[in-house]
Design a protein that fits this description.
Oligomer: heterodimer
Strand content of chain A: under 5%
Largest sheet of chain A: none
Order of helices and strands of chain B: HHHHHHHHHHHHHHHHHHHHHHHHHHHH
Number of strands of chain A: 0
Distance between the termini of chain A: 35 Å
Radius of gyration of chain B: 25 Å
Number of helices of chain B: 28
Number of helices of chain A: 4
Strand content of chain B: under 5%
Shape of chain A: flat
Helix content of chain A: 55-70%
Order of helices and strands of chain A: HHHH
Largest interface: A-B, 44 and 57 residues
Structural class of chain B: mainly alpha
Helix content of chain B: over 70%
Chain lengths: ~80, ~675
């Protein structure tokens, strides 16, 4: 996680994890959703999936995160994704 | 025993929800002659939606769609990290809601409030749970089961090629009409409003600044960039106040409708041709956060303040002589409120990005059905915002000069004679408190919605900031109208390039990473698209009836035409998947939409009333030109242009009707074929 917000969320989640470990439970669903939203917005989620897919199916060197996000952003606006 | 009590408490809870909801709807429908609290609307909305979601959507999901949570979705099967990425259900929900909820559910209900609050609220509640949400959910499910295919591809595969091409033409025209009418709403909201124009203009360089930060400095810094951008937006709202109270500065931002229309065309052209990272993408992030935040804030404000509804349940304008738009409740209520009840455009989003990122089929119910219900709640809030205004003020803001005249004294006496008292002083004070020069005849719905929102916000969060809240609401409306305008122009450009590429290869669309397209092709296609919607926008600006009267019904018809196409596809798919006994869940809404669109087309084209029928309006103008030889040449030129425009929109309306019936007839053959196969 690169942004300060993501770092904060990450620290929160690890703190929460350690607290919940004692009770043998994972993060509460609310925190999981916040972490997922932060990951989605900063591109970690998509880049992680891309790397996983790329390492499984391609031999070439994967794109770095910034280049990947730039291309993904460009592709997003080639189709209808805003309504009335 | 524990199970029994748990079941009993569940049954009791849902029974209570049903009783409370029925009481609220009954209260809204029956109470006459006294003001009711907006809390009734909220309770009716929440209870109806809870019951519909808990029972109807679950029944559809289990009995008809056979949603299988163990089945792999396209996101899990393909998972390429680009288009297909399994994503948290709440993110997909937010993404889908942000995509489907544009200005439509705010503007349509505001305009339809001329009939009173009752018709609009009933149509939104009933239409959304029985038609709109069902359409969205079935189309989303169908796309998920077909590896994320688009609506057009599914129609070609399941119905036929003719229907596929008809749907493609329909989609292109709806985008063009949508952009023009949204552009017109921005023009009407910003005309002669230096504060509003300054604030909205400033959002463009702010978005570009954020775009540069995200592209060159930190592509993953969306959160901090968006927070920073929204702070700058709020400063732009405040900055507008300085402009408004400084006559020297104000004149630089005081534009008439025509100048604003051309500015929007230039902006649309640049937004479609500039790289997406510079303007489109950052504006979208900012508008999505602003949209979700403001809607949440409005909901909280309504719950805190619980304003009284000033508009009567029904007005005399149900007879078809409304000053905002002409035509009786049927069919015009149902095409005026499209988004919020049922919107065909949603089917394009439900078969676009959303099916490719759903990680589990069981989430289809929440995302397809639930998002539409949330949009219906937004429409209910818009009705509340319109109906908390004094009816006299509501009509003075929304009635065009052609309907009520242009002299303030004449406007107020005309509206007061309808039984909705309003005075010039009231309107002057209101304009002053909102930081505007005048609020008379500010058609389009956006200014009256902003006045309503500002009243609710200021009542709930402090009454000394009325003008700031008003311009915040104007900025909020304009910002995502412009996002739809940018994105729509770009998509229409790609569609046009795909079409032109069939005849001349260099025009082909260069989407993705293919580098075959030329800059010239992009610019040329963008120019054609902007010229298409720009013409309709210009037509709306010069229309003496205010333009919205002509363009909004056209947009409503095109949107419902697309809903008819989507429901036809959904019906074919239900029959094909051996569930013919349940085909009525989409066939009944389809029959209603077919009746509505066909009646609306016939009325708008052939009605002898010049306020309704396009042909009658053209004949009326011709007669006026013939009778009045004293018109100066310039006026005659404008009137001749108006005659041409009336014929043009009449033929477009006829084309919408034909497209819908072509698709339905084409689908009938498939339906009969599959029906007979199951009968064997």
């Amino acid at each position: 996680m690169s942004s300060w917000f993501s770092k904060y969320i990450f620290l929160l989640s690890t703190a929460s994890k350690s607290r919940h470990c004692k009770r043998k439970r994972g993060n509460p669903p609310f925190l999981k959703t916040i972490i997922a939203i932060a990951d989605y917005l900063n591109g970690n989620h998509a880049y992680g999936a891309y790397l996983k897919h790329h390492n499984l199916h391609h031999k070439s060197k994967p794109l770095d995160k910034n280049s990947f996000l730039k291309i993904k952003n460009q592709d997003k606006w080639n189709k209808i994704n805003r309504c009335c | 025993m524990k199970k029994f009590f748990s079941k009993l408490s569940q049954i009791t809870t849902w029974f209570l929800v049903g009783i409370i909801g029925a009481a609220a709807i009954g209260g809204i429908a029956i109470i006459r002659g006294e003001k009711i609290s907006s809390l009734w609307f909220i309770i009716a909305c929440i209870c109806t939606q809870l019951i519909a979601y808990r029972f109807y959507s679950l029944w559809i999901a289990l009995k008809i769609l056979h949603i299988d949570e163990k089945r792999l979705t396209p996101a899990n099967k393909i998972n390429d990290g680009k288009d297909f990425v399994p994503t948290n259900k709440w993110i997909v929900f937010g993404h889908h809601f942000a995509a489907i909820a544009g200005p439509g559910p705010l503007i349509g209900p505001t305009l339809a409030a001329q009939f009173g609050y009752l018709p609009g609220i009933l149509w939104i509640l009933i239409g959304s749970v029985l038609a709109g949400a069902v359409q969205d959910m079935v189309i989303l499910f169908s796309s998920v089961r077909r590896d994320g295919k688009s609506l057009g591809q599914m129609i070609k595969d399941e119905v036929g090629k003719v229907a596929g091409y008809a749907a493609m033409i329909g989609t292109f025209t709806i985008i063009v009409i949508l952009i023009s009418v949204l552009g017109l709403i921005v023009v009407k909201a910003l005309a002669h409003s230096p504060w509003g124009t300054f604030t909205v203009s400033l959002t463009i360089p702010i978005a570009m600044l954020i775009g540069i930060y995200l592209f060159y400095i930190r592509p993953s810094g969306v959160i901090e960039a968006s927070i920073f951008g929204i702070i700058l937006f709020l400063l732009a709202v405040y900055g507008g106040k300085i402009i408004h109270y400084n006559p020297e500065l104000a004149k630089f931002f005081d534009f008439d409708g025509k100048s604003l229309a051309f500015s929007i065309m230039i902006y649309g052209f640049l937004a479609a041709t500039l790289p997406v990272w510079l303007l489109l993408a950052p504006r979208d992030y900012l508008s999505s956060f602003l949209k979700i935040g403001t809607i949440a804030l409005l909901a909280i404000a309504i719950l805190i303040f619980r304003p009284e509804i000033q508009m009567p349940a029904l007005t005399q304008f149900i007879d078809g002589n409304g000053p905002i738009f002409s035509g009786k409740i049927f069919p015009f209520l149902f095409i005026t409120i499209a988004c919020g009840a049922i919107s065909g455009f949603h089917s394009l989003v439900a078969s676009g990005t959303t099916p490719k990122i759903i990680s589990n089929e069981k989430d289809i119910r929440l995302i397809g059905y639930g998002s539409m219900l949330l949009e219906a709640s937004v429409a209910v809030m818009a009705i509340i915002a319109a109906c908390v205004l004094q009816p006299g003020i509501y009509f003075a803001i929304n009635s065009s000069a052609a309907a009520v005249g242009s002299d303030p004294q004449v406007i107020t006496s005309t509206i007061s004679s309808w039984g909705f008292p309003v005075t010039v002083e009231q309107m002057t004070d209101l304009a002053k408190s909102m930081g505007e020069n005048s609020l008379f005849s500010r058609t389009g719905g956006a200014p009256s919605l902003a006045v309503g929102m500002a009243s609710i916000f200021s009542s709930a969060f402090g009454s000394n900031m009325l003008a700031i809240w008003y311009h915040f609401a104007i900025m909020f409306e304009a910002i995502f109208i412009l996002t739809t305008l940018d994105a729509g122009t770009r998509v229409a450009r790609f569609m046009l390039q795909d079409l032109l590429g069939n005849f001349y290869k260099p025009f082909a669309n260069a989407s993705g990473r293919k580098k075959s397209s030329t800059i010239f092709a992009n610019i040329f296609a963008s120019f054609l698209v902007v010229a298409a919607w720009g013409y309709f926008l210009y037509l709306g600006v010069i229309d003496p009836n205010g333009g919205v009267n002509m363009l909004w019904p056209l947009f409503g018809m095109s949107n419902q035409m697309l809903a008819g196409i989507a429901l036809t596809l959904a019906t074919v798919i239900i029959i094909k998947s051996k569930k013919r006994k349940y085909f009525f869940i989409t066939a009944i809404p389809l029959a209603f939409i077919l009746t509505t669109v066909t009646t609306a087309v016939i009325e708008k084209v052939f009605s002898p009333n010049p306020k309704i029928g396009f042909f009658a309006a053209a004949s009326n103008i011709k007669a006026r030109i013939a009778a009045d030889a004293l018109h100066c040449q310039e006026n005659i030129a404008v009137l001749n242009q108006t005659i041409f425009n009336q014929y043009l929109v009449a033929y477009i309306a006829i084309i919408f009707g034909i497209i819908l019936w072509v698709v339905v007839f084409d689908a009938l053959f498939s339906m009969i074929k599959y029906w007979k196969e199951q009968a064997r």
